[in-house]
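Worked example

This section walks through a single chain of length 471. The input is the sequence exactly as stored; nothing has been trimmed or padded.
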Amino acid sequence: MTSTAAMPSGAREAHPEHLGRVVFIAAAAAMGGFLFGYDSSVINGAVEAIRDRYDIGPAALAQVIAIALIGCAIGAATAGRIADRIGRIRCMQIAAVLFTISAVGSALPFALWDLAFWRIVGGFAIGMASVIGPAYIAEVSPTAYRGRLASFQQAAIVVGIALSQLVNYGLLRAADGNQRGALLGLEAWQVMLGVMVIPAIVYGLLSFAIPESPRYLLTSGRRAEAREVLSQIEGHGIDLDVRLTEIEHAMHRERKSTFKDLLGGRGYFKPIVWIGIGLSVFQQFVGINVAFYYSSTLWQSVGVNPTESFFYSFTTSMINIVGTVIAMIFVDRVGRKPLALIGSVGMAIGLALEAWAFSSPLVDGRLPATQGWVALIAAHFFVLFFALSWGVVVWVFLGEMFPNRIRAAALGVAASAQWIANWAITASFPSLSEWNLSVTYVIYTVFAALSIPFVLKFVKETKGKALEEMG
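Given that input, the structure is written out below as tokens.
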């Protein structure tokens, strides 16, 4: 998808009477981010029930959980082209339909492979939402508010994660603490997966209430419609025809980067591309998604009862929201690199404490009291430091660090590396944890520690630099 045009320094802010409309448009588009977070983490509540219902081992279970990431990668890779061909709004509507179909199919599977297929469908929708939402918000936001409106997407993702865990917790209590307990004529875990129908339908309905991107309208020769959209989001205090001409000139100057532009140097890719890949891989190899995909299973494996384990999954998600807000406040004040280093140190400490706690033998099927509390506090500590640093900073870095001539292609490669790394961690955790849970967390600790010298040596601060300065 083409990137948003840069606006001149003299462009005016949206008038107050238009700001409410702009906020609504950005919030509606960010509903895709909410579904991104909700759909990717709601499976946490169904893991043990799926294992029991289909009587499968850790390897097969891991593939059912991780297979959605294949759909994510495909959706992210194709969403830009789809949106450039049929429009951003139509792309959102397709994603909403896929989210709805995935929710219904996942709630009513007749076999394990059937469940896996619907998870791929949902993953494709997640991938689309991960690309379309930020791009659309950037294209419709007035310059003065673009940064704050862009943050809606990340905020929506973490709220979606938290709400999915709260819903799972409530449904589990309604089913008397049994993931396979009867609820609304189904098993509780099926209802958990099916509830996503509600936000998916809301997303689809909201997509009919917001305008198409002015950039897409211009590429489609619909200049009058583009002018009307600009009047809605930027007000009548600017010369709309001049703004349209500026956007058209910027679009004509753009050259789409290709994979070939990334080649060079001794390591196949240019060094800056490898740094972007490294940031993406480290972000996932600290094991963050274990906290969102498997936390209920993790706590149950060390003796926590199912209802409490679901509650801890929810509290972890709330900590994730707090950390994200902290990052949004400080990323432009402290800088990207210092925040990443602070996060790496905090994550390494939290993960090391978890590794120590899980090394203790279980007593009557539970961790000893001291180790149990250390594990619980350390897990929240780890998520907090991830959220206030790498959870946000990596995406900021990837959006800023690449030279203009390769930005789009390099970002695509780095994002693909992130999905692959996410899949590797998600697919390996059940087997690794069954082998040795403590050593699994030692591995994550090592990656958190290694991210410190990586950032110090290779990553350059991008705070306060214009995109045109990136060389």
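What to look for: The two ends are 22 Å apart (CA to CA).
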